[in-house]
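thought: user wants a sequence for this fold. calling inverse folding tool.
action: design(structure=
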């Protein structure tokens, strides 16, 4: 179960990286589309025809952020109860908590650019906590060698 815990934590960290890549792909594509004469307004957002290179980045970001990453966080928490890692449940709960905050910031980030900025900041917290969880699983139970002092 330690391996499952570690692999899930690594997958969550990788998913955060994919989220960042998807958003930059989408925003860069949108910028290029506007530079080439595309018009972005409320009608464009509401139309079904908005297509430019990178539009898939918005879709990937939404699906990963609203479904896949929360599911992975929940599975990590469940696995943490069986992995028997010292502090493993607490760290998995921290990861899941950061995911919940991330989803909420993403949902309400459309209301304020400042909330959007916090969404970006919390992504680093989520990434760091997932990496910490993966390292915890790798190093748990490994004792550091002690040097014997010769008398």
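)
observation: tool returned 151 residues.
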């Amino acid at each position: 179960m330690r391996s499952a815990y570690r692999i899930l934590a690594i997958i969550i960290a990788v998913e955060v990286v994919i989220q960042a890549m998807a958003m930059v792909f989408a925003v860069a594509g949108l910028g290029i589309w506007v530079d080439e004469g595309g018009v972005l307004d409320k009608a464009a957002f509401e139309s079904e025809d908005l297509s430019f290179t990178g539009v898939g980045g918005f879709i990937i970001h939404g699906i990963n952020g609203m479904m896949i990453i929360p599911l992975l966080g929940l599975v990590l928490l469940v696995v943490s109860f069986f992995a028997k890692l010292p502090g493993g449940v607490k760290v998995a709960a921290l990861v899941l908590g950061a995911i919940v905050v991330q989803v909420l910031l993403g949902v309400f980030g459309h209301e304020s650019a400042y909330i959007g900025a916090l969404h970006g900041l919390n992504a680093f917290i989520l990434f760091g906590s997932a990496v910490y969880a993966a390292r915890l699983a790798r190093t748990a139970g490994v004792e550091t060698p002690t040097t014997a002092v010769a008398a």
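thought: summarizing for user.
answer: Here is the designed sequence. The chain is about 75% helix and 0% strand.
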